[in-house]
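User: Need the bound-state model for pyridoxal-5'-phosphate:
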Amino acid sequence: MGSDKFDHTGFATRAVHVGQDPDPTTGAVIPPLHATSTFVQFEFGKPGEYIYSRSANPTRTALERNLASLEGASHGIAFASGCAATDSVIRLLAPGAHVITSSDLYGGTYRLFEQVLRDFGIDFEYVETSDVATIQAAWRDETAMVYVETPTNPLMALTDIAAVAELTRERQVRLVVDNTFMSPYFQRPLELGAELVLHSTTKYINGHSDSIGGIVMTNDGADAERLRFIAKSVGAALSPFEAWLIQRGVKTLALRMERVDISARAVAEMLQQHPSVERVYYPGLPSHPQHELAKRQMHGFGGMVSFELADFDAVKRFLDAVQVCTLAESLGGVETLISHPASMTHASIPKAEREARGIKEGLTRISVGVEDLADLIADLEQALACV
Ligand SMILES: Cc1ncc(COP(=O)(O)O)c(C=O)c1O
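Assistant: Bound-state model below.
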């Protein structure tokens, strides 16, 4: 994607500056939003760098450069949503391919795999990717990709990226990591050996719950070219307006991640000690079964905390009582969002399948925001008192 004078600066500096040169014509500090579908060709037969915005647009390019720099990638391809990014990554494969993936996955990813892409001849197999041996055991001649979320949504299970990358590299298949929960601030899977990283930028990268988007990043030029071609051909590219909003949001990614990490640790500790809470899932707790791996492969523990109450009725009483926390799907925004995976984000997974995966009726998920921690704790405590 070309070099930038900020390439060797720190994360927060790159988040603010890469791809963000002031506008040379007006001096505007913030690069303009190029809200245009097409670009004039000043001379017949000699189009400029940009031709048509479905293929490429300067506002989108600026964001792709910025996010690629944060993830340590040479290429970034921005999509209209996280799901569009996932869909395009799977389109790198041919019918007949077998994909080994995490048994705990965002419900929409599962729906895309099972209700759309399976019909095109891709076979998805769900295993506990936190155990490398189960990946090995599931391996077939047709295995063409390992696709993991780490930590998983919503059970916060980790996959050892470096260990799985060793396996996939040896067998010459792609390892794809959905890095949405950690953001590049806390985890950079390409540095650990993954070939492709994707994000729902809707979450932490944008951070303000006001846009939908996705991005795929890689150091593989051929995959990047193919993904760009797919995005252009199917029309899955991110709109310039959304790119501009996401760019504005990402400038504070480091600040926001630092803050949610501090608050989520405190929230997880409070929940762990609360008599109404049966179990807490947070990789920052020493009681998390993969706490050591979390310390090794992540630079923080993030803002996502899941926990179990006794049953559905307890969850209902709790969710109806919260006041500072907002009951809504999604995550990664400045406001604390709280949800019930079984009936909301993961409702598209059949009940029996969902329960077999450990997503019980009493499970609640919090995306800790940047509000005052004392207000969050007080709100959660008063809502738990209603349980
Ligand atoms: C981990 C994860 N990956 C992907 C997605 C899909 O992203 P989007 O909603 O931007 O399509 C989500 C959405 O919640 C998610 O949580």
